[in-house]
């Protein structure tokens, strides 16, 4: 978009001259450029197409450039109609982009230049390849669409179950378990297994798709929370007093007495950490791969019954009765961040899969959406009854429970929402909500049992077979377990910004030394204190000892003084030299000195 | 003399006798050498028994004399009578003179036997005055030879340099090096090594060759090569000349442009621009007739420029210059005119071009103009007539307060402009509103000061409380949504003011530590909080009323007793703070109410535990103030903890006369106070409702790279190079393979020969070929 003025000026100036005769090579050059552009491929696909058109318009003259050199020409002389690699859509490439491309430094060491160029090439190749293979994720997420004038939230579950195919329809079901009180729910990471924990001690794990009961026990104690561990072979149950771990047959494996009065649990799958929040205000981390307690943090904020994890960076979010939400990592004894979110107590917190948004609900009957990276509020909604439980699905659907009603919202962080996407009334007060991974299903645990709801568009349609494969065999599971254990991330690497490991530590020497001292428990650089040796035959009299001490001290001091004096001398010398130089410089006679007075 | 010498010699002989030492003990002077010899003669005559001794002595003497220096002892001539006379030395006349070549050659001329050639040569030699250099020593010549040999070897070896460097820098090396690339070969290469055998093939090739088409490598057809050859020398020359001319002209033009650009005269530029514009318009008119399409394009461009102008703050009297002028505008006709002119320019630039080409977008411009004009200019003009209450108020003030008034008016103007952007209809009311806002700001100041001096105005507070209570039911009557909105804005306002109040209160606390009235800190906090909240409410309501058009009812501002300078300062501060509030108001979003299709049948029970529920209820009941102030206090504490503490090392009475009523001198206390540098700003300084811990994460620093690795110049480069992962989890298999390919691959079983010379030649050839290509 050159300004018109410049253009005209230039044109007029050049056009004054008589037009240079048309050269055959000019045309050839342009053609050559065209060929280059086409070769480059994807960025200039549009341009390339235009040029291709232009080419076809030209008489079918044989072009000699290119020829056999770049192999684009066939032996027959015809040009390849689709030269170069297949183009990739820009948006898809953008999806796999990691940071901005780096500028190549102008005058750099050849090694540096090589490194930069190679790494750029590698990352670009990785990006392109990933974009190319994105084609292999063919499934699309579903959605619910009402008739004209019909709200999607008025469509009942029964209608949906009738409309969809039989297997999907079977995913809507109710379990009537009115005896053992409100239920907590958890799905395993692959989404195949369901864990139910009734308040009055009933624990059941089910392969919910085949409706096969794996085990069912009553622990004869109140159960506050249940959680699957890394596989469906083990789960943790927070009971009245202590934390228990059972296997899928209902056999008690461990009773962990270090973890008492646990109210909520979260499992960090890539770190193999079980984080628990207790009624005594302790946030504890248990490494389930080695069975050790990693840290116990006293939060000093009272009863902790609101907890969730940020799947993006494995930070634990806790909600408190004073309206704040605090963020915790196992590496710091104080909260990383403390946000005032509500005027009343916080009732529930949820963080989305990408780690961008946090949704909170509080006693002030508000539902707030935060940008959790900038810690800024994005949206604020008023729910007439307030939301007691929140859960976010893989595709970003938000489910909120108000009393016995489960509402599901779509895109709470983008457009302001006025109506729920779906709503459903269950029999009793909702106690636990959990979206099933890789399925369009929401599990609701309530006072009268469990309800599995169909929520179109909730689950991620494409799964990563190496990460969480819903259809894996026992052998695959075993292999996955070994690999996952090998790739376990250490708890020290949990930070607010997971990229932090790729940054250079820019701390000062003192800071680093301090860290070292703290880590070692002593100062490795500290000087040893002089303790005079005991001498016999009365030579170790108090005066003698003192004298010896003094001697050593003097010696040290002398050393220091000598050093400082030397330094000073050096400095002085340098200064003098500089001065001399200056004098020499200033005393140089210039031709203009003669005019000085 | 002779005697003495004799004696001495005697002693010498004794010495030599006793110890047969070759070392000279005495040093002889040069002068008495002759005497010595004489003495020596005497001694020989005296001591005859031992010739051996004599000889030895002679030798010794010689040695001694040799030690004396380079000067050789002159042997006596034959003519003289001496003991020692050399028989060989015949001293001629000119003994010391050099022999010239001419002396020797001189005889040649006379002798006829010498050939002419030699004569000539000799003559030549004679003329040549140069002396022939003596040959170098063996060592030196060897050294030179070695040097030359080294250089030769170095040049021979250095031809490998490039290839070695290339191999060193290569991403991957596959040994053995000279390998045929595997994989499919291009068709052409295969064809090249293939010959037509069947008759059909032969015929085809014959046809091709008959038509002068390339057979195996279609680089250039013969016609094309011919055409390539066709470019003659003259043509090339002509072209070169043309290019030269063009270049010269361009340089002239550039020089001219540069010269013109350097002209500083504003008037020149003004005239120049005007002329340009006129010309452009003329051309545009022509274009409309001749080429409407391009004219439309031009028009679009103009429109775009206009849009940009409208968007930008140029010529809107908002720059530094304009602001400096605004102050003077009231008193100076010239500046006012200048500002008006500026606005004129703006109007002109933002005016829509009315053309016959596109008249579909013709609508009013009046609205724009109203927006564009900053009200302050109008104010200044209207300030002359006394009917304007705004100006009346100002003019009645003391001259000392003029400064202040200007500042206040500035703030007023700010507010005014903000409002104009908000609504169109309010443009006319700006003056009133400005007045209002000024009152508000004053009142706020007063209230702030009142909060500082708490006990004086209790009654007023109560009144305001009442007002608030009156207002509250009215507010409750409104919709739920409205209520929420209000609450939210209130919340933010509260936040700010509370933060300030807390700060103020704490400062006060520090000051009045010894105050008689012992107040609980929390109580004080609460109080300050309450007052401000009420004030805010009242203001908020009054503002609303004014907006709706009702007569604003607000208490008369209490007369300010402070000196004006203080007020101006505070006003400035206030303005800054205002901006802060605006920033935070952006953060909080208005609440949306969500309609739910069902109403919950079962009442929400937070916890079946009775007391827990109760606690929750209590919490809910007392939600609001206590939560926020707690949080603010917490944040304040954290901030304070992060600040460096001033260490005071003064020892009172030290180095001074003792006694009662001792006062520390300021100088001394200052000298002993150790201040540390301020830490970097907190991460949460712009987030009022967030506390971010500033503690360093030690655990991850153990795993981080803690110093920049070698070739990198800055950490961004390094971080960028490691930004993309290498593992299988994040990459496709192909990519992983490429990313982790080994630096050196050796083929199993293949013999890796040292690099042959042919390799070098091949490389060179390739380069050469590449160049020709």
Polypeptide structure, described:
The complex is a heterodimer of chains A (about 600) and B (about 775). With about 600 residues, chain A is α+β, with helices and mostly antiparallel strands. In chain A, the strands form seven sheets. Chain A has a four-stranded antiparallel sheet with strand order 1-28-27-26. Chain A has a four-stranded antiparallel sheet with strand order 2-3-4-5, with no helix packed on it. A four-stranded antiparallel sheet of chain A has the order 6-7-8-9, with no helix packed on it. Chain A folds into three domains: about 85-135, no CATH class; about 150-485, YVTN repeat-like/Quinoprotein amine dehydrogenase (Methylamine Dehydrogenase, Chain H, 7 Propeller), CATH 2.130.10.10; about 510-550, no CATH class. Chain A has helices at about 5-15, 25-40, 45-55, 90-95, 110-135, 155-165, 165-170, 475-485, 510-520, 540-585; strands spanning about 175, 185, 195-200, 200-205, 210-220, 225-230, 235-240, 240-245, 250-260, 260-270, 275-280, 280-285, 290-300, 305-310, 315-320, 325-330, 335-340, 345-350, 355-360, 365-370, 375-380, 390, 395-400, 405-410, 420-425, 430-435, 440-445, 450-455. The longest helix of chain B is centred in the middle third of the chain and has 32 residues, at about 480-510. A two-stranded parallel ribbon of chain B has the order 1-6. In chain B, strands 3-4 form a two-stranded antiparallel ribbon. Among the domains of chain B are: about 1-65, no CATH class; about 195-230, no CATH class; about 430-510 and about 520-590 and about 625-630, no CATH class. β17 of chain A pairs antiparallel with β5 (about 690) of chain B, so a sheet runs across the interface.
